[in-house]
Specification:
- By secondary structure, this protein is α/β, with parallel strands linked by helices.
- 46% of the residues lie in helices and 14% in strands.
- An eight-stranded mixed sheet has the order 3-2-1-4-5-6-7-8, sandwiched between helices.
- Strand 5, helix 5 and strand 6 form a beta-alpha-beta unit.
- The longest helix has 18 residues.
- The mean pLDDT is 95.
- One of its GO terms (molecular function) is oxidoreductase activity, acting on the CH-OH group of donors, NAD or NADP as acceptor.
- Pathway: Lipid metabolism; butanoate metabolism.
- Pfam families: 3HCDH, 3HCDH_N.
- This is 3-hydroxyacyl-CoA dehydrogenase NAD-binding domain-containing protein.
Length: 281
């Protein structure tokens, strides 16, 4: 089985790498420094140990980590048949990383863009292989979420779509194919909801706890929108809303100032230990 490259060892990249390794794929996980990669290995170990306790399958952390090679920089992607990019929803960073990927990967490598908002055709414009560039919007936590959005760009070939579908099936995912549009389906709706929920807190209409209690109690949602924001990452929410606001030039996507302030303050949610709520450990 060929090696799958995973770029970015943040929350999403770690989840993708773990999911692939759980399903028997050999993975090379790359990021900018060893400290981040050490943290990724520790997170995967913890996730595996907690899996059965959280209602998931029993996982052997050593067996899964044995399938994951880590490396600093994208040079290790040269032999990957498929690369899954998972860097932050920041256009400047996406541009730099995709130009680097384009330089080191083989001509037939499929490049999957894991994004929640940025149009795939825009990312493909950076590549010398737009026919082999395709979007997949994975959900968090990746190993536990069975459905993804699959997004071909304008130039994506059917062969690339099929290769991606086959990989997703191998990861245990069902792919829902949607057209290329900023935010796709899920985040055109979800980001509006989270942004408006943040406005309710910002304007003093309700606390985060009250907002989330309404959604859980009245609508039967397992999580409220601000709990969801903490899980996704407050900074990621802000970047996604900014992409929607820029792309559609529609005031309904105007980012809530509270999201900006929290991002500047490092209150990014679960991954930083504090967002709309405070987390231990």
């Amino acid at each position: 089985m060929s090696v799958i490259g995973v770029v970015g060892a943040g929350v999403m990249g770690v989840g993708v790498a773990q999911n692939l390794a759980q399903c028997g794929y050999d993975v090379v996980l790359v990021d900018k420094d060893e400290e981040t990669l050490d943290a990724a290995r520790a997170t995967i170990t913890r996730n595996c140990r907690m899996s059965a306790l959280m209602g998931g399958p029993a996982l052997d952390a050593d067996e899964i980590l044995a399938r994951i090679t880590t490396a600093v920089g994208v040079g290790a992607l040269a032999k990957a048949s498929t690369v899954i990019e998972n860097v932050t929803e920041n256009w400047e960073i996406k541009q730099r990383v995709h130009r680097e990927i384009d330089e080191v990967c083989a001509p037939d490598t499929v490049v999957i863009v894991n994004t929640s908002a940025i149009p795939i055709t825009r990312v493909a414009s950076l590549s010398s292989r737009p026919a082999q560039t395709v979007g997949v919007h994975f959900m968090n936590p990746v190993p536990a979420k069975p459905v993804v959005e699959l997004i071909p760009g304008v130039h994506t070939s059917q062969e690339t779509v099929q290769r991606t579908r086959d990989l997703l099936t191998g990861m245990g995912k069902k792919a829902v194919e949607v057209k290329d549009s900023a935010g796709f389906v899920s985040n055109r709706v979800l980001m509006l909801t989270v942004n408006e929920a943040a406005y309710l807190v910002h304007e003093g209409v309700a606390t985060a706890e009250q907002v989330d209690e309404v959604f859980r109690g009245c609508f039967g949602h397992p999580m409220g929108p601000l709990e969801t924001a903490d899980l996704i990452g407050v900074d990621t929410i802000l970047y996604s809303v900014e992409v929607l606001y820029e792309h559609y030039a529609d005031s309904k996507y105007r980012p809530c100032p509270l999201l900006k302030q929290m991002t500047d303050a490092g209150l990014h949610g679960r991954k930083s230990g504090r967002g709309f709520y405070t987390y231990d450990g």
